[in-house]
Amino acid sequence: MTKQKIMPCLWFDKSAEEAANFYASIFKNSKILNVSKYGDSGSEASGMKKGSVMTVEFELVGQKFLALNGGPIFKFNPSISFFVGCKTEKEVDELWTELSERGKVLMPLEKYPFSEKYGWLQDKYGLSWQIMFVGNREIKQKIVPTLMFIGDVYGKAEEAIKFYASVFKNVKVGDTTLYGKGEKPNKEGTIKHAAFALEDQEFMVMDSNHEHPFKFNESISFMVMCKDQKEIDFIWEKLSAVPESEQCGWLKDKYGLSWQIVSEDLEKMMQDKNPKKTERVMSAVLKMKKIDIKELKKVYEGK
After folding, report:
1. Which residue pairs, CB below 8 angstroms and at least 24 apart, start in 181-185?
2. Angle 229-239/157-167 helices, nearest 10 degrees?
């Protein structure tokens, strides 16, 4: 598998480690990769206890995710869900049983025109999952982030695909299904379902004109690992549309979707065994909007 360039980041209050272990326990071939703790500067900025878990990087069926303990500021909602394709109905039932416990059913697990067995739920942490029996259909990526364009961005899913295709490389657009006449409240020609890939990472999108009391927020962001400053600058310039949301490498695009534009160098620096070095780097990152690799290398080396 190629190195994963775009990784979903999930914002929890204090349950990141518990949630990561739970997800790794219910998906086969999954594991915890790295756990980082809050130091002085991170603790002061977030209000989290020094020495407590800050992030947990974990892998589910070969895909990397990052769980972050950021406090109670942001809450998950169904505008971003994770679609899981299952080869057997038994697998659907098993995942549904585990994920629905203490959760909330959004669409019951039953037969639909598009699948013999499908359901949509929010788990006990509030994270949304769509679980579907796909039979003999090819599964390229087991878990696919699914973006629902609603409210003031309704009808912009197709535009968003083209926009993201102008920002990232290795773009592929898959099957697209549009709403037809009479599928109210959705407008004819808007996207019912579409699949696309950015940097070999698959995504799905849909438009929904139903009334929803939520929208994209920072609870789920997408971390982009850049190879150098030039790439950071290019993606940042293309994506950032809300100046007040720029902080510590985070930005918000014109659709309200949150991204973290970071670098391989930063990742290496933050994994250093010397706590003084990682603390200096974290302190510097907290003062930045866009990541400045040259400056981070200076503080990392103690210059």
Report:
1. 185/209, 185/210
2. 160
C-alpha to C-alpha distance for 262 and 278, rounded to whole angstroms:
15
* Cα–Cα distance measured from residue 65 to residue 9, given in angstroms and rounded to the nearest whole number: 6
Contact indicator for 229, 215 with CB cutoff of 8 Å? no
How many Cβ atoms from other residues are within 10 Å of residue 10's Cβ? 24
Cα–Cα distance between 231 and 169 in angstroms, integer? 11
Task: Identify the structural domains of the chain with CATH numbers, from first to last.
Answer: 1-71 (3.10.180.10), 80-207 (3.30.720.110)
Q: Do β-strands 53-60 and 31-37 pair in parallel, antiparallel, or remain unpaired?
A: antiparallel
**DSSP three-state, residue 29:** coil
Residue whose pair of structure tokens reads 């902080």 in the numeric block: 247
What pLDDT score was predicted for residue 267? 86
Question: What is the DSSP secondary structure assignment for residue 247, as one 8-state letter?
Answer: B
Confidence of residue 1 (pLDDT cuts 50, 70, 90): very low
Determine the Cα–Cα distance for residues 187 and 192; give it in Å rounded to an integer.
10
Strands (E) across the chain are located at 6-12, 31-37, 53-60, 63-69, 80-86, 104-112, 115-122, 128-133, 143-149, 172-178, 191-198, 201-207, 220-226, 250-252, 258-263
Does pLDDT of 132 surpass 90? yes
3-state helix, strand, coil in the chain (%, to 5): 30, 35, 35
**How far is Cα 114 from Cα 211, in angstroms, rounded to an integer?**
23
pLDDT in tens, 35-65: 999 988 888 888 899 999 999 999 999 999 9
Report the residue count for the chain: 303
Burial of 181 (0-12, 13-18, 19+ CB in 10 A): exposed
Does the global pTM surpass 0.90?
A: yes
State mean pLDDT over 217-235: 97
Which sign, positive or negative, has the C-alpha torsion 257, 222, 148, 157? positive
Q: HSE, CB side, 13 Å, CA atoms: give it for residue 274.
A: 9
